[in-house]
Design brief:
binds 2-oxoglutaric acid; alpha+beta; globular; binds ligand L4NPZUNZ; about 25% strand; binds fe (ii) ion
Length: about 325
């Protein structure tokens, strides 16, 4: 555990113009950082938090009616469809809260509740997406990539295949249960960028390059950003996607950990490949083959276990 004393979570002040180099350094070293002074109104964050608590506090039978997560809907313990489990319940939604999401909700909870949820979620997603785009444009500036919206335009596209997830890690009622139970197993996020906000209950850990796990102290007023696999590919491996997990350590006996994550993804038809300006002839050849986001999702993401190294499947390096 000694190593934890030497790790300081990179802190990025979004309103600070000088933060671009630090931002890129954090993405290169850890693929992870914490954002403060983000300009997302606190009421937007807390309103969605309240909606989430209200949802997860419902009887299980009601929640199950908004499932299964195939891939969108309510899920309990099972993560994905390849045998992963965790001590978590969740709600996976499209970021535009599609009519299908809406219908599931309204048939279970009534139209008024479904409409209210849609409204709160839309407000949250638009503020967080704006912040994610700002971050991606700062990255493009610092890496001298033009146009500067090369990444952010994918999130802003009407067809963007972005996902929103609410995770609830309930406290265990059995004192004798194993400590550090896995809530959400280790993995990298496949999209471009993920923006996470949680309540003040700990559990999130990131893996450093040497494989050591570091606990990230929670902060309900801030956001935590993960570089996703697609951004690693587009930057030809310069920015690294972060391996992370959640341990359910049971330190909030009343409700447990609640997290909300926006996963910014490209349109399904988008071709993902290293950007030419980051693949200099003779210097750093392309590390990844080109793929469409649709193909990657179909043949790699949904065809893998949580902990699998999905980028190996598109790597041009022998391993
Ligand atoms: C086990 C799985 C769950 C997951 C799809 C997958 O087959 C592998 C990647 C998993 C992940 C991790 C990040 C996000 O939470 C997620 C929504 C995603 O895009 O990839 C989940 C998938 C899921 O829960 O469906
Ligand atoms: O719930 C959390 O804090 C993180 C979960 C996560 O990494 C994910 O849903 O992809
Ligand atoms: Fe994740």
């Amino acid at each position: 555990m000694a190593i934890e004393q030497f790790f300081t979570c990179p802190l990025i002040e979004l309103s600070e113009p000088d933060s671009k180099p630090q931002l890129v350094k954090a993405c290169e070293e850890f693929g992870f950082f914490k954002v403060i002074n983000h300009r997302v109104p606190i009421h937007v964050m807390t309103r969605l938090g309240h909606e989430a608590v209200r949802f997860f506090s419902l009887p299980l039978a009601d929640k199950l009616r908004t499932g299964p997560p195939d891939p969108f809907g309510y899920g309990n313990k099972k993560i994905g469809s390849n045998g992963d489990v965790g001590s978590v319940e969740y709600l996976l939604l499209t970021t535009n809260y599609s009519n299908q999401d809406y219908q599931r909700f309204s048939s279970t909870f009534g139209e008024a509740a479904a409409e209210n949820f849609r409204c709160v979620l839309n407000e949250y997603v638009s503020s967080v997406r704006k912040m994610a785009c700002e971050i991606l444009e700062m990255v493009a500036d610092e890496l001298k990539i033009q146009p500067r919206n090369v990444f952010s335009k994918l999130l802003m596209d009407e067809e963007s295949d972005s996902v929103f997830r609410l995770n609830h890690y309930p406290p265990s009622d059995d004192e004798s249960r194993e400590k550090n139970l896995i809530g959400f197993g280790e993995h990298t996020d496949p999209q471009i960028i993920s923006v996470l906000r949680s309540n003040n209950t700990s559990g999130l850990q990131i893996s450093l390059r040497d494989g050591k796990w570091i606990s990230i102290p929670p902060d309900e007023t801030s956001f935590f950003v993960n570089v996703g696999d697609s951004l690693q590919v587009m930057t030809n491996g310069r920015l690294k996607s972060v391996r992370h997990r959640v341990v359910a350590n049971n330190n909030n006996k009343s409700f447990g950990r609640l997290s909300m994550i926006y996963f910014g993804g490209p349109p399904l038809s988008e071709k993902i490949a290293p950007l030419p300006s980051l693949v200099k002839a003779g210097e750093s050849e392309s590390l990844y083959r080109e793929f469409t986001w649709f193909d990657f999702k179909k043949s790699v993401v949904y065809n893998s276990r949580l902990a699998d190294d999905r980028l190996r499947r598109v790597s041009l390096r022998q391993s």
